[in-house]
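Technical annex, item 7. During the second reporting period the consortium partners agreed on a shared format for inverse folding records so that results from different sites could be compared directly. Each record opens with the tokenized structure and is followed by the designed sequence. A conforming record, contributed by the partner at site C, is shown below for reference.
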């Protein structure tokens, strides 16, 4: 018969699966915003190495996949376990068309920063308004 302490890990996984993103229960803070020329995404991924991340852009969909290796040792009995573990995936629809072959990804101090240039047709353009000629009189 399972003891109450042995049920906590299973309960944590169950709740994480309900609350977490598709294909995994780990959820990290994420911001997506845009500038005049780029769409940017900041994702907090503490303790994850660049080789444990996969970023892909397909059309207007951004995929971020990763694996958090928490170093769970076999036979370890946790009293409290809140550190994330396992795989995670985000699938985000980008607000505009982007240049999929020019994505810049940087991981520093546990923050993944993605900068994705907007496609030329999605960029805001300032239209210059020219001063017309003097008023013409009819008649």
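Designed sequence (site C submission):
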């Amino acid at each position: 018969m399972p003891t109450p302490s042995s049920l906590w890990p299973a309960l944590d996984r169950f709740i994480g699966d309900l609350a977490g993103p598709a294909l995994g229960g780990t959820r990290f803070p994420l911001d997506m915003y845009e500038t005049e020329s780029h769409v940017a995404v900041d994702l907090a991924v503490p303790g994850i190495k660049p080789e444990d991340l996969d970023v892909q852009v397909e059309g207007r969909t951004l995929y971020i996949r990763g694996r958090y290796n928490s170093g769970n040792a076999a036979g370890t009995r946790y009293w409290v376990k809140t550190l994330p573990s396992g795989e995670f995936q985000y699938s985000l629809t980008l607000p505009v068309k982007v240049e999929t072959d020019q994505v810049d990804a940087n991981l520093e101090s546990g923050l993944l920063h993605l900068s994705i240039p907007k496609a030329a047709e999605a960029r805001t353009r300032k239209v210059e308004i020219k001063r017309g000629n003097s008023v013409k009189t009819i008649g």
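Confidence is low (pLDDT under 50) at residues 16-24. Strands lie at 30-34, 38-44, 53-58, 61-68, 86-93, 104-108, 111-117. All partners now use this format for quarterly exchanges.
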